[in-house]
Write a structure and sequence with these properties.
About 30% of the residues lie in helices and about 25% in strands. The protein is an alpha/beta fold and about 425 residues long. It has two domains: about 140 residues, 3-Layer(bba) Sandwich (FAD/NAD(P)-binding domain), CATH 3.50.50.60; about 220 residues, FAD/NAD(P)-binding domain. The protein has a six-stranded mixed sheet, with helices on one face. α1 runs parallel beside α8. It is globular. The termini are far apart.
Amino acid sequence: MTHIVILGCGFGGLAAARELASSDVQITLIDRSNHHLFQPLLYQVATAGLSAPAIAAPIRHILARQRNLTTLLGSVSDIDPVTRLVKLSDGSGIGYDYLIVATGSTHSYFGHDEWAELAPGLKTLSDAFEIRRRVLMSFEHAERETDPDKRAAWLTFSVIGAGATGVEMAGTLAEIARHTLRGEFRRIDSRDARVVLMEGSDRVLPPYPPDLSEKARLQLERLGVEVRTSCRVTGIDREGVTFTTAEGEQRLPSKTVIWSAGVAASPLGSALGAPLDRAGRVEVEPDLSIPGHPEIFVIGDLAAVTSDGKPVPGVSPAAKQMGRTAAHNIMRHIKGGTPEVFKYKDYGSLATIGRRSAVAQVGKFKFSGFPAWLFWLFVHIYFLIGFRSRLMVLTDWAWAYFSFQRSARIVVVPEEEPAKQKAET
């Protein structure tokens, strides 16, 4: 029986696996985590709005009824296209007849990997837990700090990168400071916190039309976010951020820095021997296979692909469509048919900014504010995996909307935290 190996159970890998559910093939799905993550709502976990189970579900549970599929928990270290072998980090290997690589992307610090420890990005649940811990502990440190300048640094939150994740993060942080934590401290006023959003280009949400970007900026400023565009970060350390603008080099004391400025393709793409673009993505053929290997398909954020002459964006709908196309083309290849060219259907773009604030573009229609926020809410509820997740998210969002409270504010403080805090202050 034909053996298909799928690497990664993100949106693309999951879509491919489900598309092959009724096919007479044997599938092995390998992922380094045991859960599928609804990444568009990951920032809600990082900002204590949702708990992890609301946006993540065990892979084995999701695919339990698919009898032609075996799930393996493991980390892939290499791929040998010549021998058709996937090598795992424990030294074992798994052969394949067809391979779908959907290992996604990671953070890019543009050559400054030393910033990773100081400014965590947001790709995994571990990232979300760490950001949530840093945000909430910053208020705790500020409550104990007696020096006004050091207290101000603890209460300054820097978000680097004003794409969708950065905009959503900044808006939510402002709401936490002004509403959620209001009145809970005695020595500080959480409303004194500063949220500074830095973007290297001349506007927020660069992929969006200029008019929607401007509306997003106005909504962010209405929430209290300080938006700084044409702002290039040149340094990050434990005390703050150094950046340059038209006025020259400047310094922002900030103890909490969050990175959302760039992504890089999974390093596994380089193991395929296929050409890569500047971001490390694999340049695939129109049918999503790699040059010289019609049995290997690359999908999702790892694939550099165009549709109708335009680059396909790294968003979840595109990954799902690629997953289904790759699955169809494998079955066509098995049956001796001609593979189909990938055609991306753009269903629109959405970005939430805060309470009752969002921007949206669906086809030729553009709207913002409360209508866009409602549309964003129902779209994300619809695409969540499983009824339980939808119910959990609806309950948490309803509670947050009417009470301004966030239900997932528990953090685990490492034992060395007090000593570390003393050293930093």
